[in-house]
Write a structure and sequence with these properties.
two-stranded antiparallel sheet; 3 helices; about 75% helix; elongated
Length: about 90
Amino acid sequence: MNMPKNLKDYWRRNLRYLAILLSIWFVVSYGFGILLVDQLNNIQIGGFKLGFWFAQQGSIYVFLILIFVYVRWMNRLDKEYNVDEK
């Protein structure tokens, strides 16, 4: 499949964005919610242990924030490569 160079660059950057955002989500959900839960449980916020909060709620909130970041980045990328919805 021969795509023009600019579309290859577009998809390369899109995949880089996905890799960055999914890496952040992995660190938050797996790292903070499972691996570092004991260390984070020494910190309490609002009466809840921080490790418990990340395991139960934090990774969900971070995922939602990452969705909005991805939308913003992709809108900017679409405009840069002139593939945005008019």
